[in-house]
Every structure is written in structure tokens, then in C-alpha cells.
Amino acid sequence: MSQVLVVTSGKGGVGKTTSTAALGAALALGGNRVAVVDFDVGLRNLDLVMGAERRVVYDLINVVQGEAKLQQALIRDKRLETLYLLPASQTRDKDALTSEGVARVMEELRDSFDWIVCDSPAGIERGALLAMRHADVAVVVTNPEVSSVRDSDRIIGMLDAKTEKAERGEYMEKHLLLTRYDAARAERGQMLKVDDVLEILSIPLLGIIPESDAVLNASNVGSPVTLAAAESAPARAYLDAARRLEGDVVPMIIPADKRVGLMGKLFGRRAA
Amino acid sequence: MTIFDFFRPTRSAPVARDRLQILLQHERVSAGASDLVAILREEILAVISRHVDIPSDKVQVKMQRDEAVSTLEVEIELPNPIRRRAA
After folding, report:
1. A254 neighbors A210 (Cβ within 8 angstroms)
2. Which of A146, A159, B11, B13 is least surrounded, with the fewest CB atoms within 10 Å of its CB?
């Protein structure tokens, strides 16, 4: 059974694309056939974060409009055999994405992949709605910061109202992915804690991704952090999150970078 | 501000949590209410359209929220002459 996963947040810059790439690669490492799909028409970046920017020939809009076959547009990852990217268009207008066209492409993707991970654009407009429309499960990416939490609350409301699953009267499965978390600052009362965000948003926790240089380093070289630095704290957190998506029960810890040493041990405490 | 505050880091996170809790409580209610207003407007329009010709923008529904009660204001403008639909 294939699963369509939307990675969404409302607010921009919280880590949707990073998380899409990292989770997509982690799921593929687990032996799944995975397609990561960029819905951010006009501002595509998933290709860049995945290191495939020079291999884009056709894109999602070409496929939606019937100008290219899905197989022509899918780019196979050079590191992982079972990981594919469907890029967004950089030049076309986002109105070129039709609802029916997207539905058709998603159906076709379901035939050949175990996981289809959709990277939503920021905002609550058409593009974000199309990205979440056909999802079976949603990952809400949130920073421990007031504006991000507020926007996530809004997106959760839309997931419960505007997805196909919600319209059929079914429960829309949603998970919180807390990114850029700094356990030490939270402990000092300078950053919202995991429990604060969980209490406010009241959706289950999928993972806590600690703030780390490894994330920026990975995007610099065009590789999902789960591949570029598999031993780093954020990569371990993403790998655990991917296992939870597959239904495994994995204890929730906030991994700390080894380089941090003693401090990391002090503050890399258990949560939830 | 006492001399002791100087040595203690500012704990701003509890303020953030409280502000969010109050704000979101309000926003969730108003998001639900605007849906309600939209549904009411559509159904009122449908009922009236069954009997009279009416442009869809001539039905206005507003909700006023007060502490004890909330009021619903419905304004329906019928252009003259009133054109009844055949039964």
C-alpha cells in the first residue's frame, strides 16, 4: 500500500524542503521506493537540496499538462537506487497546476512507489492546498517560535477541512516535526519547550530535530542530511522519525551532536 | 527590576506559550465561525432563490460576537421589481 505524505507548515523557512529530502532519503534507506515531489512552483528548491539541479529536464507541470511522461520527469537519485525526485517548474505559472492533473499524477505515482513525499510551498494558498489535497498523512514542520506555531495551527485546521481524506469524513493523520530545536535554550526558558508546542498544537510528535551545522552543510553540498552526515544529530532524528512513519515504536530522544560533547549529554535529554 | 534579575537570563518562553494559547483559542473559534457564516449565507441564498430572482451578492450575513450572546445579522436586498419565480 502506497502512502502519500505531505510535508507542510504554513510558514516559510522552517525546514519543509530539508525535511522532505531527509525523510525521503531515510525512507528509501529503509528499502522503500520513494518519490519526493516538489510542489513549490516558481520557487523550486528540492532539486538543489537533493543535488539534482543540473539533471532537471521535465517537471511536475509538464507531466500534469501531458507534455511529458512521468518516467521522463522523474530523476533517479545518484546515491540511492530507490529514491526519485519529481521537480517543480521554475518558469511556469503556478496556475498551470490543475487539480485534476495533480490527482492523475498522484494516482500514477501510487502505482510505482511505496512513499510519495510532497514538499508543500509556504502559505495557505492554492499551491499548499494542492500539495496536501491527496495526502494520507501529514508532517507539520514547526520551529519552537510563536509565528511558526501559529501558522502550524492554521495549517492543521486546513488539513482537517480541505484534504480529500477530510472531505470523505475520514481522520487526517497529522504528525508534528519540531525543527531547529535547541534543548539548552529551552531548558533556560528562552525557547518554547517540546511539551509547550505539543500542548498548544495537540498533534502527536514525530520527531525533534536539533539545531545543527550538519543541516546547512548538507544543503551546501546538495545531499539530504540523512545521507551526507548519517551520524549527525539531525540525521539520527530524521532516521528515527522515518521509522515512526513506518509504524515502528522508537523512543523519543533529542539527539545531540557528538562534537558538543558534555553539553550535549547534559541537555540531550529525553522528551515526551 | 531588581539586582537579581541581572544575573538571571530572561525566561521569555512562558510568555510565548501564554500568548499563543490565548491567541489560538480565539483564532480557532473565529475560523470555525467564518465557516458557519459562509454555510448560513449559502443556504439562506438557496432558499430565497427558490422563490425570487436574486443576485448572489445581495445576501449579507454577519456575526457579531459578544460576551453573553452572539448576534447574527442577515441583510437581504431584493432588487425592484421583485421577480417571483414560478412555483
Report:
1. yes
2. B11
* B36: containing domain: 13-76
* Contact criterion met (CB below 8 Å) for A213 and A225: no
| B28-73 residue pLDDT tens | 877 777 777 888 888 899 999 899 888 888 888 887 777 788 888 8
Cα A1 to Cα A137: distance, rounded to the nearest angstrom:
13
In a domain, B58, yes or no: yes
> Does A196 contact chain B (CB < 8 Å)?
yes
**Residue numbers in B near A161 (CB within 8 A):** 35
B27/A193 CB distance under 8 A: no
Residue type present at position A44: R
CB atoms within 10 A of CB A245: 23
Q: What digits encode the pLDDT tens for the residues A208-253?
A: 999 999 999 999 999 999 999 999 999 999 999 999 999 999 999 8
CB contact under 8 A, A146 and B21: no
CA count, 13 A, side-chain hemisphere, A79: 17
Q: A255 in helix, strand or coil?
A: coil
The CATH number covering residue B68 comes to 3.30.1070
User: CB distance B12–A190 less than 8 Å?
Assistant: yes
Residues from chain B that touch A193, judged by Cβ atoms under 8 A, are: 13
d(CA B82, CA A87): 55
Q: Is residue B4 part of a domain?
A: no
Q: Report the chain A residue with the minimal C-alpha distance to residue B32.
A: A157
Determine whether the interchain pair A190/B9 forms a contact, defined as Cβ–Cβ distance below 8 Å: yes
Instruction: Compare all CA atoms of chain A with the CA of B12 and give the residue at the minimum distance.
Output: A190
Q: What is the ipTM of this complex?
A: 0.81
User: Is residue B40 a part of any domain in this protein?
Assistant: yes
Determine, yes or no, domain membership for B3. no
Structurally, chain B folds into a number of domains equal to 1
- Which residue is closest to B9 within chain A, CA to CA? A188
Tell me how close the Cα of A268 comes to any Cα of chain B, in angstroms.
19
Dihedral through CA A141, CA A251, CA A171, CA A113, nearest 10? 70
Interface contact B22, partner A, CB < 8 A: no
